[in-house]
């Protein structure tokens, strides 16, 4: 029986590591969390300070990069055969 998660991983691996990091790390984490925190700021303070938007983008892009990179390595070790390198 085939594992659907393994098939999904192989489809995503076809994108390549850099596209995977952008599509599953930088964009959803960076832009998504920036929007969420901006909405929270608008609700809490009734205004949006535009100085914080680029700062949030940079911070959340870094977070997204590290999360997606860790996920990439975890999926590689889970679904790829072990190859011993010299």
Give me the secondary-structure topology.
Blueprint: H1 4-15, H2 17-45, H3 52-79
Helix pairs in contact: 2-3
First-last Cα distance: 34 Å
Q: Main β-sheet: number of strands, strand sense, barrel status?
A: none
Total of helices: 3
Low-confidence stretches: none
How would the global form be characterised? elongated
For the CA atoms, what is the radius of gyration? 17 Å
Q: What is the residue-averaged pLDDT?
A: 90
Structure description:
With 86 residues, this protein is mostly helical. It has helices at 4-15, 17-45, 52-79. The chain is elongated, with a radius of gyration of 17 Å. The chain crosses the membrane at residues 20-45, 51-68.
Concise description?
The protein is mostly helical and 86 residues long.
